[in-house]
Specification:
The complex is a heterodimer. By secondary structure, chain A is an alpha/beta fold. Helices cover 36% and strands 22% of the residues of chain A. Chain A folds into two domains: 1-97 and 176-264, Rossmann fold; 102-173, no CATH class. In chain A, strands 6-7-8-3-9-10 form a six-stranded mixed beta sheet, sandwiched between helices. A four-stranded antiparallel beta sheet of chain A has the order 2-1-4-5, covered by helices on one side. In chain A, β7, α6 and β8 form a beta-alpha-beta unit. In chain A, α3 crosses α4 (129-142), α4 packs across α5 (158-171) and α5 (158-171) packs parallel to α6 (188-203). The two termini of chain A are 29 Å apart. The model of chain B has no long low-confidence stretch (mean pLDDT 90). Classes of the chains: A alpha/beta, B mainly alpha. Chain A binds chain B through residues 58, 60, 88-89, 92-100, 102, 104, 106-110, 119-120, 123-124, 152, 154, 168-169, 172, and chain B through 112, 114-115, 117-126, 128, 132-133, 136-137, 213-216.
Chain lengths: 264, 216
């Protein structure tokens, strides 16, 4: 599999994005292309900017310079390289085109599992309650939670909550799905059920960018792995190449060695 | 004694109606103003945040009685002559508004940031996020202190009697002036205030239970 498909226009095109929080440079001229149907995992030590990069893609965070385009359309700013933020309405419409799943689930606690999924469908997509309910039930079925449609988040396990979180994101029909350490807050025995859902979405051709510490999953499920360090892309390539123990990228080798040491 | 009080009952009832009317106006106006200013305080641009902050801190630092006298005796100095009733309502509303702003800030501030982000991520606009995600969750936290504030408003409305407005308190004082039955009348007044506020806190507890399904 190629590193960055040159001929097909990228669905997600990140160009030279930089961002600082005060004096801390969290992103240093990051570039990244993701083609339709690709599953890209982003790995790296904490503080390397992985999550910030993901949050810039749907403009939960702004960035200082560079450009992020989805399907050719500039995400957070108005066209022509201006630093002028899009209007609230525009931003909302753009965000509806990207799905995001969070480390801490962030389900709406006052709504049922189905209600969580239906909110965006009715208020953003303009669907009737009945249509939204049908779609919600379909996706709950896909994540194995058809029987929990009317349960509140507090009545669900962490793994179940996260599966609802995934269903809520994909039900909107996003062009790309952003997964931000979605298994990090889960008990180890619940990780599998969530990754299984992600795997099945990948098989269906969903385009995904996933920040994760699950190396085995990154190896098996992703078309490409991006290794980030110090706010920049330090290495990128197919899993076999990136996860090879004898890589000559020193930072990556240290990261992988430390990772292996702590996981075996 | 009892017949004297019985004769006074219609008059007391009128005073009571006025107490309820003042309280209702103050509660409704302060709720609307407080929530609007609260949104400004939490989500507004920095200058607006400062303006609300200064308003709230200043008003809360002044005794209600001073506000009431200021609204009635002070404002005419700048050309604003309010009838005593509206001067009193204005003063009480300002005082309550400053409190509602704080209840609102506390309630909304207790909602984790992830809730707004999740709502943004599915494409809800700012207003939709407030209406469907933040307010429904903040409501449960807003309710107990706010109802408490409503009972304060009912009790605080007794101060309007100092501007010569015939509310329940003033009515009681006038009846006492005619009958010299201070003790039974004050007890009667206390019972009426208590009944209203007790009913409110019962309603509050019921509402809280109704919304207790929202857990974090």
């Amino acid at each position: 599999m190629s590193t960055s498909p040159k001929n097909t226009p990228a669905l997600l095109d990140v160009q030279d994005v930089s961002k600082a929080f005060g004096t801390v440079q969290v992103l240093r001229s990051v570039s990244l292309q993701v083609a339709k149907g690709e599953v890209v995992t982003v790995i790296g030590p904490s503080g390397s900017g992985k999550t910030t990069l993901l949050r810039c893609v749907n403009f939960l965070e702004s960035y200082d310079s560079g450009s992020i385009r989805i399907d050719g359309k500039e995400v957070g700013f108005r066209e022509a390289g201006t630093r002028q933020r899009r209007s609230e309405r525009d931003l909302a419409a753009m965000r509806a085109e990207t799905g995001m799943v969070f480390q801490s689930f962030n389900l709406f606690p006052h709504l049922t599992a189905a209600g969580n999924i239906m909110l965006g469908l009715t208020k953003v997509r303009g669907k009737s309650n009945a249509e939204a309910r049908t779609i919600a039930e379909h996706w709950l079925g896909r994540v194995g939670l058809a029987h929990k449609a009317d349960s509140l988040p507090a009545e669900l396990s962490g793994g179940q909550q996260q599966r609802v979180g995934i269903a809520r994101a994909v039900a909107m029909g996003p062009k790309i799905l952003l997964l931000d350490e979605i298994t990090s807050a889960l008990d180890p025995e619940l990780v599998g059920e969530v990754l299984e859902v992600v795997r099945s979405l990948a098989e269906d051709g969903m385009t995904m960018v996933m920040v994760t510490h699950e190396m085995a999953f990154a190896r098996d499920a992703s078309s490409r792995i991006i290794f980030m360090a110090d706010g920049g892309v330090s290495a990128a390539g197919p899993p076999a190449e990136i996860l090879a123990a004898d890589t000559d990228n020193e930072r990556l080798r240290t990261f992988l060695a430390r990772f292996r040491a702590s996981h075996f | 004694m009892l017949t004297q009080i019985a004769y006074a009952l219609p008059f007391l009832a009128q005073g009571f109606a006025l107490t309820l009317w003042v309280s209702l106006l103050v509660v409704v106006f302060s709720l609307i103003a407080g929530v609007i200013m609260g949104v400004g305080l939490v989500y507004g641009p920095v200058p607006l945040q400062w303006a609300v902050r200064i308003f709230s801190d200043t008003i809360r630092g002044i005794p209600i009685l001073v506000l009431i006298f200021f609204a009635y005796y002070g404002l005419p100095a700048v050309g604003l002559h309010l009838p005593s009733f509206w001067a009193a309502v204005l003063a009480l509303t300002l005082f309550k508004t400053a409190q509602v702003v704080e209840y609102f800030r506390g309630a909304v501030g207790s909602i984790p940031k992830g809730q707004s982000e999740a709502a943004m991520a599915i494409g809800l606009t700012f207003r939709q996020r407030l209406a469907y995600v933040i307010f429904p969750q903040a409501f449960r936290r807003f309710l107990p202190p706010w109802i408490n504030g409503v009972t304060d408003a009912v009790k605080g409305s007794a101060l309007v009697s100092l501007l010569g407005i015939t509310d329940l308190m003033q009515a009681i004082n006038q009846v006492i002036g005619r009958t010299y039955e201070a003790m039974p009348l004050y007890i009667l007044g206390a019972l009426i205030y208590f009944a209203v506020n007790y009913a409110l806190s019962l309603a509050s507890r019921r509402l809280e239970r109704r919304f207790s399904f929202i857990r974090e």
